Amino acid sequence: MEHKGNNRNPDSFHGGCRQSGFTLLELLITATLIGGVFTLAGPYFAKISVKSETEAQTRVLTDTLTYSRHSAITMVTDTVLCPLDTNGKCGRNWNRELTLFIDQNGDGEMNDTEQILKTIPSVNEAAHRAFNNSRIRFNSIGRSGFQAGSLSYCNRSSGEPIGTALIISRMGRVRKGADRNRDGLPELANGNNIPCA
Questions:
Q1: What are the residue boundaries of the structural domains of the chain, listed by start?
Q2: Phi-psi bin for 135: left (phi > 0), alpha (psi -120 to 50), beta?
Q3: Of 4, 34, 126, 145, which cross-links 157 as Cys (Cβ 3.0–4.6 Å)?
Q4: Half-sphere exposure (CA, 13 Å, Cβ side) for 96?
Q5: Amino acid 88: pLDDT
Q6: 3-state SS assignment for residue 115
Q7: pLDDT tens across 92-113, in order?
Q8: pLDDT lower than 50: segments of the chain
Q9: Cβ(60)–Cβ(123) under 8 Å?
Q10: Can you give the pLDDT at residue 44?
Q11: How big is the CA angle at 83 (ends 178 and 118), to the nearest 5 degrees?
Q12: What is the pLDDT of residue 140?
């Protein structure tokens, strides 16, 4: 019996297939189109990134203020959140690392015997954090009294400032500032826009 094998001609088999791929011109056009899309979409993605970072900062600050007030009530002592200088005193540069501590003697300074509850890292050069006082204090019944005010955060990384304001009442309650004049930035308790300098 005669064995029938594959009698196809290798040359005719390969000759019948069309090789597929991109030409150099097609690759250049595709790369140009992709580059154009990224150029146009770049500012949009930068704005989304800054907005996301601002929301994260808002959560951190809100959670810290809530924790500070709750700790003051449960421990029946004052708590203080502020930027500390090298001597343990509260300063006014809120862009620096913030420290939340128990202020047992009520002097508004971080002493060796007082416990640190939490720290918040400093902000980058494109961001700005501000408060109208040198410290945020909550007393043993959760009130902030004369330490009330507006804690703000603003980020200018995308070119357009994006920020938040947390308004602390004398009763110790915290609420977000609203953008009543619809200019893209929330207002402080006094009605002014958050500082972004």
A1: 53-197
A2: beta
A3: 126
A4: 14
A5: 83
A6: coil
A7: 999 999 999 999 998 888 988 8
A8: 12-13
A9: no
A10: 62
A11: 85
A12: 95
39-42's contacts with Cβ under 8 Å and 24+ in sequence apart are: none
Query: How many other C-beta atoms are found inside a 10 Å radius of the C-beta of residue 110?
Result: 21
Strand 127-130 relative to strand 136-138, pairing = unpaired
197 Cβ contact list (under 8 Å, min separation 6): 128
Structure token pair of residue 116: 């640190």
What b/e readout covers 32-50, taking b as 16+ CB neighbours within 10 angstroms? eeeeeeeeeeeeeeeeeeb
Q: Which two tokens stand for residue 160?
A: 């357009």
Q: What is the pLDDT of residue 19?
A: 58
Identify the CATH class of 53-197. Answer: alpha beta
Round to whole Å and give the CA distance between 7 and 63: 78
Q: Answer whether 83's CB lies under 8 Å from 93's CB.
A: yes
* Long-range CB contact pairs, 131-135, < 8 A, 24+: 131/94, 132/188, 134/82, 134/90, 134/91, 134/92, 134/108, 135/80, 135/81, 135/82, 135/90, 135/108
